Amino acid sequence: MSLFASFDWTRHLVVLPVLLPLLCGALLAPLTQGRHNLKFAASYGTVLALLANALALVWLTDGGATPAWASHIGVYFAANWAAPFGIALVADRLSSIMLVLTAVLGLAALHYAQPRWSRIGVHFHSLFQFLLMGINGAFLTHDLFNLFVFFEVMLAASYGLVLHGYNVARLRASMQYIAINLAAALLFLIGVAMIYATTGTLNMSDLAARVPQLAGPDAGLLRTGVAVLALAFLVKSAMWPLGFWLPTTYAAASPPVAVMLVLMTKVGAYVILRVWLLVFGSGAGDSAHYGYDALLWGGMATIVFGAAGLLATDTAGRMAGYAAIVSSGTLLAVVGYGEPLLVTAGLYYFLASTIAMGAFVLLIELIDRIRTPGAAMLALTMEAYAVEDMPAEPKGKGVPAAMAFLSLAFAACALTIAGLPPLSGFIAKFGMFHALLQPGADGSPIGPMGWTLMALIFVSGLIAIISLMRFGVRTFWATESAGPPRLHTAEVIPVAGLLLASVILTIQAQPVFSYLARASADIHRPQTYVDTVRGTPPVPGPTQNREAP
Amino acid sequence: MEAALAIAIGIVFASGIWLILRPRSFQVLIGLMLMSYAVNLFIFSMGRLAVDRPPLTPAGIPADPAALADPVPQALVLTAIVIGFATTALYLVVMIGARGLTGTDHVDGEEDEP
To answer: On chain A, which terminus has fewer CB atoms closer than 10 Å, C or N?
Structure first.
């Protein structure tokens, strides 16, 4: 009993987002496709549990009610090795809200995949769970090499999922996607090795504590190492000129997988945010604010590239890809601008744009049915030799007023992505403009870079609305369709659910914003992390407890 | 010793970069493998080069840090080898699949017009 009495069990919640999907994925792997309903139920249950767990983490980190969470940071030592020697998982406000976002998108993708996509290939559910494990792990880990491992778990699962529903387009896209990610992984390793060589640590907090003490050639070598490391994340978050792989891959992937790809693009931006603020914050001595300019310029170039791509393309899949590029460019520029207030608004934009993009990529397939009704799409995707038994047309009632639903949902997505009122995209952009116009931390007014960034965000929104409305007019008003498309309820619910989440985000903007402001304040104070992670003792072993009087 | 190793890693890595820019998928695969070998050597050398220093402490004797090699890069390189091996094998499978389905081994899945 004393084993539990001396230790706050809530700390174990930090490792559950990694363990649950790992267990579920492993258990599902040997089951045959015949047990489809069982597999789906297990997978769905796991994602629901992940959502509950993530909400509990949000509550714990924000409340700080128990002693273990007093600093609003939960630390879990893998195998009970104290930091900085072992691997630490750290849940703070930012990573907790990211876990919620992952679970929400995972739930929508899984629900959407239920009638059709999860049945047309083997191991969809296992790969999906491993993908969730990798993403959750990347959000939680506090160790650079462990981050590499979680990235590889996430990527390996995504390679399998991008290929899901095997056809020529997916194979071509996958070859390039895999090759570019393998090369990026090598850069990641070089960066990690150089950081270890100069500082002798891989723990992020320990690194943050040691960077200010470096000087001379060592500091230069460290900055080179982190820059090489950042390249790997920037490939993932598709910064210009590293993001040419993205639109092709997005357009080729099946819709439930594309939802997760949208999130994976954001994981790159998240890691940049985390590592940069922790390691190169204002307290980093010689290295303070290293690379901020590169992120700002790169982010702005990415916005321009994405906006140009949006104007130039007329297929919905590629449009989603370019919209994702614009949004990750905006995030990178926000990080590079280096104002805490702007980061808060940027985090809100992170949530709003990811949810809207998730709904949009799911909608694309449904909208395509206006042009190619019936099972034509399915027949196309099932060519080749992946599956012999074709699943029957989804049973159940068709959804009434399908056209009205599709067009309204499309309009809602377009408004959010472009940042027009009344949905969450507008609040996000309004928040960013507001933060840009505020005087900076040193009292300086907005400079030319601020104006440029503001203009770019504004113009990219305008271009997004032009491009999306052009597509909408062509599809909904100018298509000679035989009749309304047949939609399955299981395909409509996730889209509606994501849009509902977007509406909730809009109505509850005040609490969400204040939560994100606290999260942003946390990550701008690296010292808290250093103190908490170094100061947390490992769990006392059973023998030590017995010896205690 | 450092210079020789640095030059060797550089040559292997440069060959890898040249190969991944080639149009045939098999060349890309070999390029990725060469690059990963170079990176593995690089990680290993980040623990500083030394001869005759084991990364282990004999049981019962107090450890002498000066006589030991840094074990962390060696552990990292093992993990990196395993992961790199697995992902390369996966790429090989996709490559064979693409060759079968598109009928060409060009990385774009179609031949350039002559």
So the answer is: C
Backbone phi and psi for residue A203, each to the nearest 5 degrees, phi listed first = -70, 130
- Give the residue among B20, B45, B22 at the shortest CA–CA distance from B33: B20
State the smallest CA–CA distance between residue A84 and chain B in angstroms.
Answer: 12
Per-residue pLDDT of chain A (549 residues; tens, 9 = 90+): 444 444 577 888 889 999 999 999 999 888 887 788 888 899 999 999 999 999 999 988 888 667 777 788 888 888 888 878 888 999 989 999 999 999 999 999 999 888 778 777 778 889 999 999 999 999 999 999 999 999 999 999 999 888 887 778 888 888 889 999 999 999 999 999 999 999 888 888 888 888 888 878 888 888 899 999 999 999 988 888 888 888 888 888 888 899 999 999 999 999 999 888 888 877 777 777 788 888 889 999 999 999 999 988 888 888 889 999 999 999 999 988 888 888 999 999 999 999 999 999 998 888 877 766 544 444 444 444 344 445 555 545 556 677 788 888 888 988 888 888 888 888 898 888 888 888 766 667 778 888 888 899 999 999 999 998 888 888 877 766 656 677 778 888 899 999 999 999 999 889 999 999 999 988 888 888 888 888 888 877 776 555 444
Reading the block at residue B94, the tokens are: 């996709």
Residues A296, A298: Cα–Cα separation, whole Å: 5
Contacts of residues A390-395 at CB distance under 8 Å and 24 or more positions apart, as own/partner, are A391/A116, A391/A119, A391/A120, A394/A115, A394/A116, A394/A488, A394/A490, A394/A491
| Nearest residue of A to residue B97, measured between CA atoms | A171
**Are B109 and A172 a contacting pair at CB < 8 A?**
yes
Question: Mapped to the 3 state alphabet, what secondary structure does A330-366 carry?
Answer: HHHHHHHHCCHHHHHHHHHHHHHHHHHHHHHHHHHHH
Complex-level ipTM: 0.93
Residue of B nearest to A198 (CA): B46
- A265 backbone dihedrals φ, ψ, rounded to 5°: -60, -40
Q: CB–CB of A485/A398 below 8 Å? A: no
Percentages helix, strand, coil for chain B (3-state, rounded to 5) are 65, 0, 30
> Which residue in B has a C-alpha nearest to residue A166's C-alpha?
B97
Pick the CATH number of B2-55+67-102 from 1.10.287, 2.60.40, 3.40.50, 1.20.1260: 1.10.287
Residue ranges per structural domain of chain B:
2-55+67-102
Separation CA A356–CA A358 (nearest Å): 5
Chain B partners of A163 at a C-beta cutoff of 8 Å?
Answer: 94
Task: Give the whole-angstrom CA distance, residue A323 versus residue A81.
Answer: 43
Residue B38, classed as helix, strand or coil, is helix
